[in-house]
Amino acid sequence: MTATSVGIAHPPPRLTWGRVELRPIADLDRHAWRRLHAHFRDPEIAHLNGTPPSRLPLWLLRRMLRADAARHDRRTFGIFDEHAAYIGTVELYDLRGSEATLGIIIGERSHWSRGYGGDAMRALLAFAFEQLGLERVRLHTFGDNERAQAAFRKVGFVERQRLTGPRGRVDVHMELARSAWFERRGAPPAPAAGTAQAGPARTASGAPANLSPAAADATG
Length: 220
Ligand SMILES: CC(C)(COP(=O)(O)OP(=O)(O)OC[C@H]1O[C@@H](n2cnc3c(N)ncnc32)[C@H](O)[C@@H]1OP(=O)(O)O)[C@@H](O)C(=O)NCCC(=O)NCCS
Prior knowledge:
- By secondary structure, this protein is α+β, with helices and mostly antiparallel strands.
- It has one domain (3-214): Gcn5-related N-acetyltransferase (GNAT) (Aminopeptidase).
- The chain has helices at residues 30-41, 43-49, 58-69, 116-131, 146-154, 178-185, 213-216; strands spanning 15-17, 20-24, 75-80, 86-96, 99-106, 136-142, 158-164, 170-177.
- Strands 1-2-3-4-5-6-8-7 form an 8-stranded mixed sheet, sandwiched between helices.
- The radius of gyration is 16 Å and the shape is globular.
- It starts with 14 loop residues before the first strand and ends with a helix.
- Coenzyme A is lined by residues 45, 48-49, 88, 104-106, 112-118, 141, 145-148, 150-151, 154, 206-209.
């Protein structure tokens, strides 16, 4: 299957890996949207993500993110932990040909550095490589975001380039190729499109990736 056939998986299924479940953003309930709104307004998260904190009211942010998520070049999911609590958002954007860019925000600080980001990315990468048939997933993050770089390396991303931006902040470009994903996975490509169970049960505790709050916040 090629990326041009992604239409058959749209809207995408729920995906699982380890302790997380990814649900299409269209499926978020009111509580999840309130938490997402809080994450997008958080100045520290905004700084890590390289965007201004959102000043949009919840209703407008929801409308814009839903519209964004309906685009053909984007797949956006809410991340839910093992207690079915919404903890963040992960997406593929700039989905063109056989490539896409990954963005992720674990918005709940209580969940940082506990493997949830790794699980969420693996669930999304399994979807990207095994269901969408992508050849490469890219991302970019900031040089000062050591936790993000460690998390990205853990799931197999390798650094390709470092560029210093106009304000002196270093932009780190990373990517993961399909072949490397399957090498790490240790299994042949899963054939079944639409298979929601993406990964094994977790045995141990456990994107600037652009989740586009700026795109959703023209006033930002
Ligand atoms: C970046 C993010 C997605 C990573 O998810 P996570 O669940 O926190 O990460 P994981 O637990 O899977 O992996 C983090 C790793 O970094 C390590 N780490 C944490 N702080 C670190 C630091 N300052 N320097 C180096 N490594 C660090 C952790 O120990 C862990 O490695 P380990 O499992 O070998 O111990 C998440 O922290 C997040 O969303 N943060 C806020 C927003 C953000 O930064 N988004 C990314 C923008 S590009």
